[in-house]
Specification:
By secondary structure, this protein is an all-alpha fold. The chain has one domain. The protein is built from 3 helices and no strands. The longest helix is centred in the last third of the chain and has 36 residues. The mean pLDDT is 95.
Length: 86
């Protein structure tokens, strides 16, 4: 729920305000990956379910990472325009 909340909030903010929320979603997704791995290692989750869930979470993590990268690139370009190197 916290991941979805962070993504939803980021979706409505300006580019300058999105990054903290996207990073929060990335951290929560990473935590989810670890918890899923613990469930699998303790045999609380069978291999098939673990693989299915892991693939979806990995895909979502890559999407968040790409979004964060786009925001970082935009912010860096904006910073460089405001403070050009002479």
């Amino acid at each position: 729920m916290e991941i979805m909340g962070a993504v939803a909030i980021a979706g409505f903010l300006s580019r300058e305000e999105k990054q903290p929320w996207v990073r929060l979603a990335i951290r929560k997704t990473d935590t989810l990956k670890v918890l899923l791995m613990v469930l699998w290692e303790t045999k609380s989750l069978d291999d098939k379910k673990y693989i299915t869930l892991s693939l979806k979470i990995e895909e979502f993590g890559r999407m968040l990472g790409g979004w964060n990268g786009q925001i970082a690139k935009y912010l860096e370009e904006k910073k460089n325009k405001q403070n050009p190197v002479r």
